[in-house]
Design a protein that fits this description.
Blueprint lengths: L4 H24 L4 H10 L3 E3 L22 H15 L4 E3 L10 H10 L3 E2 L2 E2 L23 H21 L3 E5 L3 E2 L7 H17 L6 E5 L9 E2 L4 H11 L3 E6 L9 H10 L3 E6 L16 H17 L9 E4 L8 H20 L3 H9 L3 H12 L4 H11 L5 H7 L2 H9 L9
This protein binds manganese (II) ion.
């Protein structure tokens, strides 16, 4: 299914009068509206190929209908999102769940939808059917050199796929660790992992980056070999200038101060990528902004402040991606909601009076500091986010149009009621 441009224009025309009224009221109360709008227009969020099917839990998976059955259909799905919001202009592939067969055709299809290929993701947390050695006791940390070698070769293979697609980054998330005290020696596990990552690093093209993603627990429950930002930063620093830490919002222990983490990683020039989701308890992979929108805003405030301090381009300096999937929503509707929440938090962060905040901090005026932050957070920025969409030819209200055009019903007609997306 393709969404024709005239359908978006017709829809916007019906909404435009009301939109303009709200936008003008908001714009009249803000400084530098045009600057904020341009930043919103430029900001693109990668969609992972594994988020397009219905997710599941350890206990079950309730498949949706009309899910993409192939990489081509996944690209088509991201193309639909991008047509609706013009903010989802990249797709992130997971190898081996989505191995491209014909690079040229896949690249042409993505280009046709206005999509780029974001970071490619390796997988050494599962055994594949044709795999020689098992990752049951880890991959890059493994005591057996042959297993470490297999993990390294897989990552180099992923880089090769990425090069063909025009990607320029590899994300490595390792499930390595231990579930019981004494199961492994922490130093050996770290050193084996470092040696393996060094071999992968050596295979990176000059203009590539590698992102070392950390996670506090799960699937291992006693120790994770890349368990927090300190461990990830240690690896990134030891590896070299092409290695960065990747922050996934769901990969922290409860109540971790993620805004402080991103602030310090940016200060060190070592924040490379970002995975959005939301959670109440652990790595819940819920819709971004659905549980803790204030935390999301505070994180964006740290990101904007930290990127501006280093003169970084917000849109291109970091790899922004959603990493979520759950089992009770239509995945495309869920992704539209996540992108909207990200754009809202970003817009609010752009409105923070950074000069005023710095002044209040200098005077230890704690009350004014809070007022300045909450002034931005409590501003309803939805009209400005919608205006950015209008200017790029996207829908003023993407979710509403998705439903009005019966996108899912169309996909079910094309793909069938019982389809299961590859990978999950
Ligand atoms: Mn992630």
């Amino acid at each position: 299914m393709q969404i024709e441009k005239y359908k978006i224009d017709d829809f916007n025309q019906q909404q435009e009068q009301e939109h303009k009224r709200k936008f003008e009221v908001l714009a009249s109360s803000l400084n530098n509206v045009e600057g904020v709008l341009q930043k919103l227009v430029d900001f693109q969020i990668g969609i992972p190929s594994w988020a397009l099917g219905t997710g599941g839990t350890r206990f079950g998976r309730f498949s949706g209908s009309g899910e993409p059955r192939s990489l081509e259909e996944k690209i088509e799905d991201v193309g639909l999102l991008h047509a609706l919001n013009q903010s989802s202009g990249a797709i992130s592939l997971h190898i081996p769940w989505d191995i491209p067969q014909d690079y040229k055709a896949i690249k042409a299809l993505a280009a046709q939808h206005g999509l780029k290929f974001d970071a490619v993701n390796s997988n050494t947390f599962q055994d594949q059917p044709d795999q020689k050695q098992s990752y049951k006791f880890g991959s890059m940390q493994h005591v057996d050199k042959a297993i470490r070698r297999q993990a390294v070769e897989h990552n180099i293979e992923v880089i090769r796929h990425g090069i063909e697609l025009g990607s320029d980054a590899l994300t490595v998330w390792l499930s390595d660790g231990s579930s019981f005290p004494g199961q492994l020696n922490f130093r050996n596990a770290f050193e084996n992992t470092l040696e393996s990552l060094q071999e992968v690093y050596a295979a990176l093209p000059d203009d590539w980056k590698v992102f070392v993603e950390y996670k506090a627990f799960e699937p291992n429950f006693y120790s994770m070999t890349v368990g927090d930002w300190g461990q990830s930063l240690l690896f990134a620093n030891k590896l070299g200038p092409k290695a960065y830490t990747l922050v996934d919002l769901g990969h922290h222990l409860p109540n971790a101060n993620i805004e402080q983490i991103v602030s310090l990683l940016l200060m060190e020039g070592k924040l490379g990528g970002f995975h959005f989701n939301d959670s109440k308890y652990g790595d819940d992979d819920l819709t971004t902004g659905s549980i803790k929108p204030y935390q999301l805003f505070l994180i964006f405030n740290s990101l904007v402040d930290g990127m501006d301090a280093r003169g970084m381009d917000h849109a291109t300096s970091l790899a922004w991606m959603i990493d979520a999937s759950h089992n009770v929503k239509d995945p495309l509707e869920d992704l539209l909601q996540s992108v909207e929440a990200i754009m809202i938090a970003y817009a609010q962060a752009l409105l923070v009076d950074q000069q005023g905040l710095k002044g209040a901090q200098q005077e230890n005026d704690v009350v004014r500091c809070q007022e300045i932050l909450q002034e931005a957070f409590r501003t309803d920025v939805r009209p400005i986010v919608a205006e950015a969409r209008l200017r790029t030819g996207a829908a003023l209200r993407p979710l509403q149009l998705f439903r009005e055009l019966k996108v899912r019903e169309n996909l079910i007609n094309e793909r069938g009621l019982k389809t299961v997306a590859t990978g999950l």
